[in-house]
Design goal:
The protein is of the alpha+beta class. It has one domain (about 5-180). It contains 7 helices and 8 strands. It has an 8-stranded antiparallel sheet. Helix 3 runs antiparallel to helix 4. It is globular, with a radius of gyration of 17 Å. The N and C termini lie far apart (about 35 Å). Residues about 175-180 have low confidence and may be disordered.
Amino acid sequence: MIQRSPSEAAKIYDVTHVAQSFREVAVDVVRGESTEFLSRWYQAARGDADLTIWWDGEKRVVKQQLCLYGQVVEWNPIHGTRTGLVVEQESGPTEDETSEIVHYDSRSQKASIDQAILLIRAVGAIPEADRALLVYNFRESPKLHKNARERALKAWAAHGEDLLSSTRPSFWKRLGRWMFGK
């Protein structure tokens, strides 16, 4: 068992300390039928938190998802801001094949959103203007109007499900996709 001093243990759960350790670990371009998406994946040094941001071809955020110790805060223009919890479940014939599913809360949890905002404000690896946009999305929860939602889903076509899915690719799948394009 690893022994930690009280001050060292406190840093593990200090959101600002976690945020300051974030680094960009992957950038991926996904080409769709009518647009391309850019995803940027940031991860805390200890691996206990990550943030993924998806941008469309016009440099608009179409989804942002922060996972901190299994707690999820996510925003997209269809659902707005949602909170939830990551649950691992077996997804194949062997125990090695698992997927992470986000179980969303019936009502977004204000404390989770406030914690996400505090973390994002402290992430130095993300430009200040982008952080301000991410904070705005989490706080204000803007959503597209019905007609705009239908147009957006058509434009996103092949990758719309990925953007709106409650399934999170595992760390290894994300890493493999980044390294090998799989």
